[in-house]
Task: structure prediction
Amino acid sequence: MSTQLRRQPEVAPWQDPSAQPFLRIQNVTKTYGKVYACDDVSLDIYQGELFALLGGSGSGKSTLLRILAGLVKPDRGRILIDGVDISDLPPYERPVNMMFQSYALFPHMTVEQNIAFGLKQDRMPAAQIRERVAQMLELVRMSDLGKRKPDQLSGGQRQRVALARSLAKQPKLLLLDEPLGALDRRLREHTQFELMNIQEKVGTTFVLVTHDQEEAMTMASRLAVMNAGMIEQVSTPAGLYEYPATRFVAEFIGATNLFEGRIASQDEEQGTVKVHCDALEREILARYSDPIPVGTPVSVSIRPEKIDVHETAPTATENLAVGQVVEIAYLGDVSIYQVKAPSGAILRVQETHVVRSAEPHYEWDDTLYLSWDAASAVVLPA
Result:
C-alpha cells in the first residue's frame, strides 16, 4: 500500500501535552432501534488537521459526520468546537460546512453563482461576495471558468467548485463525505494531492469520511478506524499500518498474513515472545516487550512485503516457512504469490519489481522458502 506522508511539525499537536484539541467528541452515542450506529465515541482532533474517519459500510463513520454537522441528533454525548459546546445548535448556526459526495451543485447556476450562494444567504455585501468568490476561484485554480455551468465541467472541476463553495463561508470545520468517490481512479489520485494542498493553504480543519484505505492513508495526518460504531484505533497512517492495535485494524489496513496461536515463551530481557501457530506447525519469534502470560491466545500479523523469498533454505534466519506457489498475480510494479505450506496454511508474499521484466520471477508449483525478522511479526490480542 502506498502512502503520502504529510509534512508534520517537529512536535505534532497530538503529541504535545499542552496542546488543546480544536474539536472534541465526547461519549457520543446514537442508536437506531437496537443497533448502535455510534457507541460511546470519544475523539480529539486538532486545529489544522486533515483527519480521516475510515471504515466499511455500517461502521458508523457517516453517522458521526452527520452528528458533527447537526443533521443527526445523538442520543447522548457532546460536541465542542474551539471550546464551545455546539451539541444543541442547529446546522445553520454551527461554524461547520459539509461537502457531499454528489457535490449538490445547482445546475441552473454558474460556477460563480454556486460559490456565492451561501454568502448571499448570509446577506454579505455584494462587493465582499465578488471578492470572496474571486479568492475561492483562484484557490481552486478555476478563475477562467466562473461563467460556466456544472454540466460544462469535468468531474474533477465540479469537485473543486463544491470545495470552493464549502470554503467560501470560512467555516472553522469542513466535513467531507466521500468527496472523491464519484471520480475515476486516475483523477481521484490527482485530486487527492490538490485537496491536500488547498487544505494546507487555508488551514481549515478537515474531517474526511471514506471507505478507501489508500485515499485516507494518502491524505490524512491521522486516521480513526471505525468498526461497528466504535473506534478501533487512532493513529498516523504509518502508525496504523506498522503498529495495528487490533486484528481488525491489521486486516482492514492493507494486506496481511494472520495466524492464530498461543504464547509459548517470553524473553523479557530480549523483548521477544515465541508464539506457537498450529497453522504453520511451528513457533514464530516476534518482538513484544510487554509482559504476556504463557498460554495466552494471540494473533500474529505479518505483512506480505516484510517476507523475504528464497529458492534454497537460508542458513540463518529468525523465522522460516516453506511451501509451494499455488497462485500468482502480476500487478506491474509488484507480483503477489500465494504460497501453500505443508499444513495447508496460505502465506501471501509480495515481490517488488526493481528490474524490468515481463513475467513474474517464480512459477506455479515452485518450492519457496520464506523468512522474516522478528520485528516484522506483530502480536495482537486474539
Remarks:
- Residues 83 and 153 are 40 Å apart (CA to CA).
- The chain has two domains: 13-251, 255-381.
- Helices lie at 61-69, 111-121, 126-139, 155-168, 185-202, 213-219, 237-242, 247-252.
- The domain at 255-381 is CATH 2.40.50.100 (OB fold (Dihydrolipoamide Acetyltransferase, E2P)).
